[in-house]
Amino acid sequence: MMQTFLDLKAKQPEDLPSIIKIAFGLAAFFPPVKSEIRLDFFDDQLNEVQKEAVSFALEATDLALIHGPPGTGKTQTLIEIIRQLAARDLKILVCGPSNISVDNIADKLGPFRIPMVRIGHPARLLPSVISTSLDVAIKYSSGGMLVNDIRKEMDEKLNTSKKTRNGTERRKLWEDIRDLRKECKVRERRCTEDIVRASKVVLSTLHGAGGRDIIRQNFDVVIIDEAGQALEAQSLIPLVRGPSKCILAGDHLQLPPTIPRTDKTSSLRKLELSLFERIIKLHGPLIKRTLSVQYRMHEMIMKYPSIGLYDSLLLADVSVRSHLLSDLPNVIKTDETQEPLVFWDTNPHGGFGEDDTGAHESKSNAMEAALCRYHLRNLLEAGVQPKDIAIITPYNAQVALLSGLIKSEFPDEFSEIEIGSVDGFQGREKEAILLSLVRSNEKKEVGFLADERRLNGICLLQNSHFLGTVP
Fold first, then answer.
1. Of the listed ranges 45-49, 358-362, 452-456, the one predicted with least confidence
2. Which InterPro entries match (predicted)?
3. Which residue intervals of 309-461 are DSSP H helices?
């Protein structure tokens, strides 16, 4: 990342790539001219809004944003864009701020047999995408097999050197090993470059895009997914070498880039502005297309974020619009399974005040955790499967408290019930969500929960049922 800054600093403003100029307001953005040629879509399941977003991204000259609130099929739309670009024989670099964001694309892209390679250590990748990793590609390539033969020869000479007592022979063996090591590095680098060069789609984290496996390659198009969660500096890494086009996809109205919380955090808050959000603020709605039909949650759950953050643009597809827990197989009708949205007041005067903790310690609320346990029991007794339930909270201390409580009460179901933080759960789906907000005090302090983007991330996680505690 530091090298990216140095590269940019060394350039005069007029010498910067056009995408960088537009991103920082040094050049104007001109909306693409709509093509008269009818586009043949590969995916016949795309809705009209998704098709419009695909066409917009393909027609853009240099920069296009896809604004995808959760559940609106952003990944599906990106897969169509990638397939269209690959069909035009363009070389594409797909990036994201985390391994999981990149692996989600790689996993969905796999069945279409587009020549692709995933850059990254196999230990950090999803099992379903390891077969596309660079390490595996090298292993089974002719160049990789030759590298393995050289390594075997090095090992043999090393073992021989340990046994020989003749100093002259030992020096000769070490000279051979040194030469073989050099040859191994050269051939390994050449093998890597050949594989990456032969791939139409290369997938990497944003940090990985600055690595030696990619740095020597040129790409026609860079696609950055989850761009609303990426640090701005990260997003610049794949752009500094000047691709012809960049497509950013994400949602700046959800959780911002993660900034470590320290005593100096306030001075770092400016880093929460992502490149995605900066571009929207600079160039307005003409630079983006918003996916508006969501397939994840009941209409009542969707109502708050739609009105409060998305200018009432979100629409619930008919498949989820009135979906309830009681519609699931073997789930009986109860007060909780027939209501899509339930709130429980945890006012401190009612005995639900948060636990006493230090000013800089994670917060917890034992009474609220007990309330979550009670409603979890009701859902399980109604027939909701443990794997369909998640309990989430903004605070790690509450995660630990809930985990201990649920494990002791429901030992058989515990492994299937997901308990975690809001940040860690973003983008996931469950049929039922129990949300513990924790904060409940006389001063009415809610800390970082005052950030409406965090509340939005919470509201858009679930599918058919949402039970939240209100401080």
1. 452-456
2. AAA+_ATPase, Coronavir_polyprotein_1ab, DNA2/NAM7-like_C, DNA2/NAM7_AAA_11, Helicase_ATP-bd, P-loop_NTPase, SF1_C_Upf1
3. 366-381, 396-409, 422-425, 452-459
Q: Over the stretch 304-314, which tens digit does the pLDDT of each residue have?
A: 889 988 999 99
> Parallel, antiparallel, or unpaired: how do β-strands 63-67 and 245-250 relate?
parallel
Distance CA 356, CA 170 (A): 69
pTM of the predicted protein model: 0.83
Q: Is the dihedral of CA 12, 17, 21, 24 positive or negative?
A: negative
Q: What are phi and psi of 37, to 5 degrees?
A: -80, 130
Chain mean pLDDT for the chain: 87
DSSP-derived pairing of the beta strands 201-205 and 116-118: parallel
Structure tokens at 36: 């008269």
Q: In this structure, what token pair is assigned to residue 222?
A: 């860079």
Task: List, for residues 167-189, the tens digit of each pLDDT value.
Answer: 888 888 888 888 888 888 888 88
Of the candidates 81, 154, 142, 152, the residue with the CA atom closest to the CA atom of residue 112: 81
- Domain range list for the chain: 2-115+200-291, 142-195, 295-470
Q: Are 228 and 277 in contact (CB under 8 A)?
A: yes
**What is the spatial distance between Cα 414 and Cα 429, in angstroms, rounded to a whole number?**
18
Q: Which residues contact 441 (CB under 8 A, 6 or more apart)?
A: 348, 353, 354, 471
Q: Does 3.40.50.300 match the CATH number of domain 295-470?
A: yes
Which superfamily is assigned to 2-115+200-291 in CATH?
Answer: P-loop containing nucleotide triphosphate hydrolases (3.40.50.300)
